[in-house]
Amino acid sequence: MVKLPEKNKYGFYEIRMESIGGMGANIAGKIIAEAGVFSLGLNAISFSSYGSEKRGTPVKSFIRFSETDDEIRVNSAVENPHMLVIFHENLKKTLAVLAGFKKGNTVILNTDKSPSEARDYLEIPSGKVVCVDAIRIASEEKTKLNVVMMGAISRVSGFLTPEVLIEAMKETFGKKYPKLMEGNIKGFKRGYEALKIQEFTDDGKYKEVAYEVLERDVGYDNQPMGGVILQIGNTAMKDLSTSREAKIPVFLPEKCIHCGLCESTCPDYCFVFEEEVVDGKQKVINKGINYQYCKGCMRCVSVCPVDAIVEGAERDYNVDDMTVTLTMDHRINPGVINE
Ligand code: SF4
Ligand code: SF4
Questions:
Q1: How far is Cα 119 from Cα 269, in angstroms, rounded to an integer?
Q2: Residue spans in the chain of domains classed CATH 3.40.920.10
C-alpha cells in the first residue's frame, strides 16, 4: 500500500475538480479513485455535484483517499482540498472556485498563463501553482481534456503513478473505444510532462476565502425575486459564454457559400444572415456568429460542407470583436431583464 503525501485531521487526502459538464471531470474522478483502490491499496470515494445536470453547466467533482486504517464514512463535498484542479479558467468569472483553498496547497489550472499570471488571476494566497495548456494538448492529440488533466494530476500528486492511471483508463475506455486509446495515452503523457510549476510563499497579497460564506450567501430569505440567477450563463441574461468548453467556432467568410446549413443546425440561432445585393442580385449572406448565444457545441463545424467554420481555442480570439449582431438589434441588453 502506498502512503499518502498529506492527510487532514481525519486521515484523508482530498482533491476537488472545478469543471463544466462535458469536460469529463466526473469520469476522471472515478478513474482516479478506482486506480487508488484497485492498484494502490488505498480507500477512495469519488462523486460529483452536477447542479442542473446540463452539459455546459458548472460541475464539482470530489475525490477522497485514505490509507486502509482510516475508513471513509464521509460523503460531503471536499471543502478544503489538498489539490484543487480547475478545468476551465473562465469558471472564476462566475464561481468562487478558490473557496476553501488553504495556504500552501496545490492548484492545477488548465491555461496558457504562466504560474505567476495564474496566481494573480485566481488570487491564490500561497502554495504550488501548476499550469497546463490542456485544451491545446487535447486538440492536438484529438483526445479529451480530462485525460490531459489526469496526466497533470498524476505528476503533481506524487502517488497516483502514470502506470496505474493509464491502466485504469484502459479499463474504463479501452473496451468501448479501443481506437481512441492511443490519443488518450499520448494526451495523458503530454499532460504529465508539459507542466509549468511554481511555488509561492505567503506574501500577504491574497487571502484565503472561506468555503461556506461564498457558497451559501444566497438563501431562502435573500434570494432575488423570481429565483433569477443574476450571473451570465443562464437564459434570463441570454449569455451562454460560460457554457463553452474553451472552444469556439471560427467563421471563415472567404470560404462560405451561404448555404444556410449552419443556421438550420445551430440550436441557438447564433448565425446572422442578412439580405444584400451582390452582382446586381438580391442574396442572403452569412455575416457571422453572435457569440453571446453560442455554447460551443460545434454542430455548425461538423455540418459546414466547405470548412468555412473551424474549431478554435477561445483564448486565441477576442469574441467581442468577432461577434456579429443583427443590423436591427433585437437583443435584450445584457444585464437588463424584461426591459
Ligand atoms: S454551413 Fe458553411 S458554407 Fe453554409 S452558410 Fe454556414 S458557414 Fe457558410
Ligand atoms: S457552436 Fe455553432 S452550432 Fe453550436 S451554438 Fe455555437 S454557433 Fe451554434
A1: 37
A2: 12-215
Tell me the pLDDT tens digit for each residue of 237-272: 666 666 777 789 999 999 999 999 999 999 888 999
CATH code of domain 241-322: 3.30.70.20
Nearest ligand to the CA atom of 287: 1
pTM recorded for the entire structure:
0.76
Question: Considering only the top CATH level, what class is 12-215?
Answer: alpha beta
The residue nearest atom 2 of ligand 2, judged by CA position, is 300
Residue keyed to cell 485514505: 66
Q: Are 221 and 184 in contact (CB under 8 A)?
A: no
Ligand 2 proximal residues by C-beta, below 6 Å: 249, 265-266, 268, 270, 289, 294-300
Q: Which three cell numbers stand for residue 231?
A: 450571473
Residue at grid coordinates 462523486: 47
Q: Which of 269, 297, 314 to mutate to test ligand 2, by most ligand atoms within 8 A of the CB atom?
A: 297
User: Given the CA of residue 286, which atom of ligand 1 is nearest to it?
Assistant: 5
Q: Which ligand is nearest to the CA of 255?
A: 1
Rg (CA), the chain: 22
pLDDT digit string (tens) for 294-313?
Answer: 888 899 999 999 999 999 98
